[in-house]
Structures are given as C-alpha cells and as structure tokens.
C-alpha cells in the first residue's frame, strides 16, 4: 500500500484537506479519530485514566472529560508522558490495522504528530498543510473553546513549522480561502495516483 502522510499544526486545516482527498475516493486513516476511540466508554485505556486521575477525569455519564484531561497534561508534564506511554502503542497498532485494510489506490495517514511520533517511517510521501502561526491561533480560537495561551502552548508543544517543512515531500499552503485548496489537492491526487501505480508490484 502506498501511504501518504498528512500533517500540520493545530488549526492548519488538515481535516479540510483530507476531506478533499476523501471526495476522490481515497481512504483516510486518521490518528485523531483513532485516539478518541481508544478512550471510548468501557475501554481499557479509559479505565487506566480513571485509575490514575479519579472520577474528575470523567463526565457524569462515564465518558472522558477531554477538556479536563487536556488542561491536566499541559500543566503536569509527568502526566503527559504517562498518557503518551499508554496511548501511543494502542494508536500505532490500530493505525497499522487500518492502513493494511485500505483498498483505495493509495491511503492517507492523517496525524498532527506525524513528525514528532516518527510516523513518517510508515509513509512513502509526506504532505504538510502549512499556515502561519497567526492563522493557527485565529482558526483555533474560532473553532475550540480554549484560551489564546492554551493555543500557544499547544503550538509550542508540537514540532516547529520549519521541522514539518523539512520533513515534507509536498506542501499545501492554506492561509487563504478554502476554494484555493481544491486545485492543490487535485494536482497532488494525480501525482499520488501515478506514484502508487509505479509502486505497485507487477504480477
């Protein structure tokens, strides 16, 4: 399977980009979606979180209180490390299962921490969705119920813009209007189809 890794900082528009690839019939394996599901109610990972942090980490209905946990790990580095040690192996295992099961001509692995977690080793190409830091902050404040300080902390905890660009085979510039993305995605889709076809072993 020919794997294209898609990454970008918070607020860069990764989901918008991957949705455009999905419209071309391409399978999207999303690390964020997998990360959410491994914390589903009744899961072993959620039970481990409750055991460490108590019921304040949960909503009244027993589901994960993501806002509380996000705040907790940003203020307690040792808790962030513990959570990473718990979740990263589970996420990687599910990622590999879903990549293996993909049937489209190529498959996209979407991960905000593609560079940081060395998931680039699973990819044949790396596509970075690039925006300015000002755009990241503006979009995240509009989308999420978080403070500007928290957005800044998230940005600083991620790879730098330059580190992502250094890892990129291709770059989509997304500081402008959504309509500007369509052409960029269509051109890359054609490139990836050709590369995937070239990469396919002959019978």
Q: What's a quick, concise take on this entry?
A:
The chain has helices at residues 14-22, 31-37, 44-53, 66-75, 77-101, 133-143, 148-157, 161-167, 179-199, and strands spanning 3-7, 27-30, 107-110, 125-130, 170-173. With 203 residues, it is α/β, with parallel strands linked by helices.
Provide an overview of this structure.
The radius of gyration is 18 Å and the shape is globular. A five-stranded parallel β-sheet has the order 2-3-1-4-5, with helices on both faces. The chain has helices at 14-22, 31-37, 44-53, 66-75, 77-101, 133-143, 148-157, 161-167, 179-199, and strands at residues 3-7, 27-30, 107-110, 125-130, 170-173. 54% of the residues lie in helices and 11% in strands. It is α/β, with parallel strands linked by helices and 203 residues long. Helix 4 (66-75) packs across helix 5 and helix 6 (133-143) packs across helix 7. It is built from nine helices and five strands. It has a domain at 3-26 and 104-197: Rossmann fold (3-Layer(aba) Sandwich). The longest helix has 25 residues, at 77-101. The mean pLDDT is 91.
Going by CATH, the architecture of the domain at 3-26 and 104-197 would be: 3-Layer(aba) Sandwich
Number of helices: 9
| Rg computed from alpha carbons, rounded to a whole number of angstroms | 18 Å
Q: What is the overall pLDDT average?
A: 91
Keywords: ATP-binding, Coenzyme A biosynthesis, Cytoplasm, Kinase, Nucleotide-binding, Transferase
Family: Belongs to the CoaE family.
Protein name: Dephospho-CoA kinase
Subcellular location: Cytoplasm
């Amino acid at each position: 399977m020919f794997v294209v890794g898609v990454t970008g900082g918070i607020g860069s528009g990764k989901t918008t980009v991957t949705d455009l690839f999905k419209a071309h019939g391409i399978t999207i394996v999303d690390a964020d979606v997998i990360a959410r599901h491994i914390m589903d109610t009744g899961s072993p990972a959620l039970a481990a979180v409750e055991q460490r942090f108590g019921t304040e980490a949960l909503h009244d209905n027993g589901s994960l209180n993501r806002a509380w946990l996000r705040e907790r790990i940003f203020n307690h580095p040792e808790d962030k490390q513990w959570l990473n040690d718990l979740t990263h192996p589970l996420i990687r295992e599910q990622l590999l299962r879903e990549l293996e099961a993909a049937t489209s001509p190529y498959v996209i692995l979407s991960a905000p921490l593609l560079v940081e977690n060395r998931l680039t080793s699973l990819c044949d190409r790396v596509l970075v969705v690039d925006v300015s830091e000002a755009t990241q902050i503006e979009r995240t404040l509009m989308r999420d119920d978080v403070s500007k300080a928290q957005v800044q902390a998230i940005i600083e905890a991620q790879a730098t813009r330059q580190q992502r660009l250094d890892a990129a085979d291709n770059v989509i510039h997304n500081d402008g209007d959504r309509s500007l993305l369509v052409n960029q995605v269509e051109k890359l889709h054609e490139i990836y189809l050709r590369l995937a076809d070239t990469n396919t072993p002959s019978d």
